[in-house]
Design goal:
The protein is of the alpha+beta class. It is 40% helix and 26% strand.
Amino acid sequence: MPSVAFLRAINVGGRQVAMAPLRALFESLGFSEVSTYIASGNVRFGGRGRGAALEARIEAALEEEFGFVVETFVRSEAELQAVLDSVPFSEAEVAEAHALMVAFLKGPVSPEVAQAVAALSTPVQRFRVIGRELYWLRVTRESEPKVERAVDKLLKPMTGRNVRTIAALAT
């Protein structure tokens, strides 16, 4: 079953990674049907491996090849579909919002942390943690950096994508 690696913070600042060498790196790891989607660190691939061991293997190869740590979050095609099916906001809320983002986490968080994150919701942005994902509904274009830093402190490491990107990668 195909999987997608979501790479945190590439092509930001001095952390530049061209897509052709990135695809070649994944192929050198023995993965098949490697493709990238936009230049923000989304790599679709086929092959064996799952979970933390697979993420660690990819992270080690990325650091060796590109010279910096790239936190990696891998989800299978089925897991991505489950992410899309589990959106905790109504269709009307999503339709009226500026954006729906999903941040991938390394693992599930405690119920207390999930509640603390949800409690940081404001009229401008709402947060819900389900499993290994943070759902972030941005009601307006403007965000609240202080709130975002508090969420980041509770959940990092994580990497976020727009739900439209996830939908494109899930199929």
